[in-house]
Amino acid sequence: MFKKTLLLSLATSSLLATNGINLIGTSTVSRSMGGTGVAFYSHATEAMHKNIALIGDVQKDEFQFDMTYFNATLSSSVRDDNPLNETNSNGATISASTQNHLDTNFVPSMTYVTKVDDEVAFGIAMIGAAGMAVDYKGEYSHRQLKSSMMLMKIIPAVSYRQGNVTFGFAPVLGLGSMSLNYDERYIDPETGKPYPAGTKPQSQREGLFGTNIGGDSLVPAFGFTTGIDIKVTEKLRVGATYNSSLKYTYSEVTNFKQFGPHGMVYMADEYAGGALSSLADQSIKGNNDLIAALEAAGLDNSTAQTVVSLMPDGTISESLALTNPDTLHDLTLEQPFEIAVGFSYELTKKMTITGDYRYIPWELTEGYGEFGWKNQHVFAVGAEYKAKNYSLRFGYNYANSPLESVTNEFGSLVSDVQGHYIFDQALSMLNMLGFPAISTTHFSAGFGYAINKDIDLDFAMVYSPESTVSRDGTLLPLDKVYEGLSIFNYAYETKMQQLSLSGGINYRF
Predict the structure, then answer these.
(1) Is 167 exposed, middle or buried (0-12, 13-18, 19+ CB in 10 A)?
(2) Superfamily of domain 2-255+325-508
């Protein structure tokens, strides 16, 4: 049962109303109010999600359970004229939608808070915090790419109140899982021949607890969170939080050499049906036999020369060894630190407004920074109308996309990603297809209902209208004269729309 709950806490089959990959509010009340809550108290257990200093307002023991259902409409289009690709589009654009796995469309969280004395409160929470995933199984234009990353946090927190100021602190245990499956193998290792059309297999490495979700293990990361809550007046409250970064190193994610110059050798060998194996000990540069082998496989002389010019120095055997699909590399992805400030103001006895600002520096992190993600500035506002036994809530959240559109990209430039030189075209493909964290605008609404003085029910809906990001460019050899060489154009575009529903129950005892 614990494994099932843990998997649900981690599982997200597509991006869930997010700033980057971080959920917009991980509790129901916060999600209904645009993800605000740094300085807004509704339940003590809600405070564990937003600003742990707020748990100082607890009056009785509280337990809360939240569940979020989400659905994202995510599609991508690909144009890739590289003739070595099995899905060379020859100038056409091919679109596909990612599959949606209903059995992992639910994310729960559980929290408990107790009052130790008039000054001290304690709480503990297990929170599904972030995630993303796509699944293009059967879509050969998209390389049958399948990615999954899921994060949760276990937080034991304590707060201390002195007058109208409360401080909170908590160590954080993060647990993460990640996988990236990408088909680039043309030859069936059992027969030594190309796979029949339409049968090229997608990697189906086993994921968590025997599923195909995430990697094969949970990776721990350690950090902390701290917060302050100040009751300025009876009506005005301000707060601030700091969440430290969490660094996860995932083992055997994928073969990153396939995305760089060595990958051109691998792809050429596959395209030529393994004909390069007889030239394996020869140098790549200036190798007329290599160009002849590619011509024999169907490339014209200009295209063959272009392909070879994109290959690295060294021998063919060295590149083939480095790009073996059975060799998988590790990847470190660091969740960035976050700084948030907020306020809440009681306009009337029934109406309260909230506002938060959050800074998420993706550029400064290991992994996301190397993939070219941009820092985010998140602005959110919310409102609550509270009557005798019910509440109505509304919110709005906006943040720039960490992935920006790019035009006329020089795809043959390479970037160093943790010791692997990767073409910028490949980075664009991975960002657009595998990790499309592109949502910017979110509208939210919800309500709460008090069954009695000890039990509250809360509901929320978050809608993110369609966002679009695109990358296009040319894969050409920058160190060669362009005249007489082929130019391979490419373009990627991703569109995403999101809808999520949340429900929570809070029990005081």
Answers:
(1) middle
(2) Outer membrane protein transport protein (OMPP1/FadL/TodX) (2.40.160.60)
